[in-house]
Specification:
Blueprint lengths: L7 H10 L4 H8 L3 H8 L7 H10 L17 H8 L1
């Protein structure tokens, strides 16, 4: 199994911060709402193209949706802690 391209919690947090439900996000990126749900539960692994579309729809960088590097703090983690 390939490593995850997204961090499910980060994707869900960004979607909620953007005020979108799964159906609305799915419509913006061109996938089905159930696939967004699978990704948010850690059961799906979006392609790089779809990951880019998620980032554009959520007005963030791709790295903000990816799993953190061990021992590194990302902008997404810093912002989430401040909220």
């Amino acid at each position: 199994m390939s490593p995850p391209t997204t961090d499910p919690q980060r994707l869900q947090r960004r979607r909620i911060q953007a005020g979108l439900n799964r159906k609305e996000l799915a419509a913006k990126v061109g996938c089905h709402k159930s696939y967004v749900g699978r990704i948010e539960r850690g059961l799906g692994n979006p392609s790089p193209r779809l990951l880019k579309q998620f980032a554009e729809a959520l007005d963030c960088e791709i790295v903000d949706l990816m799993p953190p590097d061990p021992g590194a703090t990302s902008t997404a983690d810093t912002q989430a802690g401040a909220a």
